[in-house]
Amino acid sequence: MPLDPDAELMLKVQKGNRLAFEELVVKYQKSVINTIFRSINDPAEAEDLAQNVFVQVWKVRRRYRPTAKFSTWLFTIVRNMCLNEVRRRARHPADSMEKPVTDAAEGAEMRWQLADGSVKSPSEEALRNELHRRIEMALRRLPEQQRTAMMLIRHHNMAYEDIAKVLRCSLAATKSIIHRARQTLRDQIKPYLKP
Q1: pTM reported for the whole predicted model
Q2: Fold of the domain built from segment(s) 1-99
Q3: C-beta neighbour count of 72 within 10 angstroms
Q4: Closest CA to 136 of 190, 83, 188
Q5: Domain residue spans in the chain?
Q6: CB of 41 within 8 A of CB of 86?
Q7: Taking 60 as the threshold, does the pLDDT of residue 112 lie above it?
Q8: Secondary structure (3-state) at 117
Q9: Which residues contact 82 (CB under 8 A, 6 or more apart)?
């Protein structure tokens, strides 16, 4: 079975090829930052942690085995980094520089991420922004495994099998996690949808 192109690049990185490493960083940097941001809600810290993810990729490059897609392996590292940061913040809450997100900040973030030129009127745009803000808030409230699974589906279009590997659980458990997450999101967003 042929390797995915990113796995081939990572095998070059394994041998010390810095250009291949830079190519992977450029390709995945934004996705990694966005995934971390959605877990910790701190843009500056998300960028720092993303750098740490790629430092970790370089450090463990010799242990890489192309048994799954490269993105699955990478997002396993991202997930572990996020879990470690959440635990660190829980142990040392005074160290966290995270500020509560205001509604205005959330709205601005959503417009930046979900801009759509097809909106016809300001009132429709306001309703759409409010719905997206509510979706993001609902996603942040999900338990960690559910939130991670939904982010990998929504933002990285990852297959259930790959998500199971990132979450380190069975395919059946992953399907259950995703089903519960979708049900929770549906229940929380239902009041904001048109009848």
Answers
A1: 0.62
A2: Rna Polymerase Sigma Factor; Chain: A (1.10.1740)
A3: 21
A4: 188
A5: 1-99
A6: no
A7: no
A8: coil
A9: 35, 36, 39, 40, 49, 148
